[in-house]
Amino acid sequence: MDLLRIQEALRREKLDGWLFFDHHVRDPLAYRILGLPAGHVTRRWYYLIPAQGEPRGLVHRIESHVISSLPGEKSQYSSWQEQHAGVGILLKGLKRVAMQYSPLCAIPYVAMVDAGTIELVRSVGVEVASSAELIQEFEASLSETQFATHLEAGRRIDRICAESFRFIGDNLSSSVNEVMVQDWIMRQFRAGGMVTDNAPIVGVNAHAGDPHYDPTPQTSSPIRPGDFVLLDMWAKLDQPDSVYYDITWTGFCGEAPDRVRSVFEIVRDARDRAIDAVSSAIAAKREIRGFEVDDAARTHIRERGFGDRFVHRTGHSIGGEVHGTGANMDNLETHDERRILPGALFSIEPGVYLEDFGVRSEVDVFVTARSASTTGAVQRELVRIG
Questions:
Q1: Which of the four pLDDT bands, split at 50, 70 and 90, describes residue 139?
Q2: Cβ contacts of residue 237 below 8 Å, gap of 6+?
Q3: What distance in Å separates the CA atoms of residue 330 and residue 291, rounded to the nearest whole number?
Q4: Class of domain 3-137 (CATH, top level)
Q5: Least confident of 7-11, 34-38, 312-316, 325-329
């Protein structure tokens, strides 16, 4: 826990404090930010970092050890009456504190605190603000070491992606299907020292038009000459504190029809519009927020007549989990007003999904104080398979 940096951020955000709360390890963000081991926790605990002064906590008497490694005085309670009174004492003199809360659950990745606890804090006269911006700074901003793991995963996955298209091409004349390709990619991940939370998406023709299609032995389609193929793969190094790499590429078995190429180019150019929106803002030292990046890609697709076929956000934060806790590139599923900060890593992945095929083009973008750039290979043309 970087106490001085947290307190500096609280003063900058005009907050009186940051109140952490947990019960049964429901808020993993609290443990990561505070540097606490997530052990056996069966009673509620509270820990306040004020904008000024010494932190303080409130714990149950039978689990007083839970936050004992953190600085500051800890009060104890047993009864619910003591607990409620203790919260009032803990927050005495404060007017506005941040918690892992999101109004209207607009940002579910930080909405960890239950409504009843929010009501309890409000009942003692304290306003609750969202910690979403603080989470970005202290949870979703990558270190140099973390970013290095992302880059190495990217080198391995870019190679596997290219080899996957070759694997399909080499087997077109015999027999290959979606599940066979999915299994082959998973074997390459394991051989390459990588892990993933889910198997990759391998979608052929109409299946590529389903953004979250997951092939099974029952649904797996054969891949033949004249077919469109989408590959979406994500993984990270099999080592502690590693960060995901997440990409989507598309190809065609043979010469692609003009209609397929046209949709691909629309999606590709929308992707590039979003990348440019971020990179130009960072270069000009101009603040940019997640929803603005989504607008850049979505406007391009809408102007070309496919607005109703772009059915998800433009991108998501990436970290130790493939869907991270930083700003998302989103003005569809949510209106994400969070700033894109140095150290942020996120995907840009617009898509157009039709009845007979769907195109998504996904890259990862990393932001520093001076620039924003893609972190791996960038698809410019449809892959010709075979």
A1: confident
A2: 149, 152, 153, 193, 194, 195
A3: 5
A4: alpha beta
A5: 34-38
Q: What is the four-CA torsion angle of 109, 194, 245, 30, rounded to 10 degrees?
A: 30
Enclosing H/E stretch for 255: none
Task: Give the count of beta carbons closer than 10 Å to the beta carbon of residue 172.
Answer: 18
Q: Which of 273, 353, 279 is nearest to 312 (CA)?
A: 353
Six-digit token string for 362 = 């996904």
Angle at which helices 3-12 and 132-139 pack, to 10 degrees?
150
- Spell out the residues 6+ positions from residue 166 whose beta carbon is closer than 8 angstroms to its own: none
Q: Where are the domains of the chain?
A: 3-137, 144-385
Condensed to tens digits (0 to 9), the pLDDT of residues 52-68 reads 999 999 999 999 999 99
φ/ψ (deg, to 5) at 363: -130, 165
Return d(Cα 175, Cα 73) in angstroms, integer: 67
Q: What is the pTM of this model?
A: 0.90
Q: Where are the beta strands (DSSP E) in 117-178?
A: 127-130
Residue from 231, 237, 229 nearest 154 by CA: 237
Q: CATH fold of 144-385, please? A: Creatine Amidinohydrolase (3.90.230)
Q: How far is the C-alpha of 227 from the C-alpha of 252, rounded, in Å?
A: 6
pLDDT at 39: 83
Beta strand pairing status for 56-60 and 73-77?
A: parallel
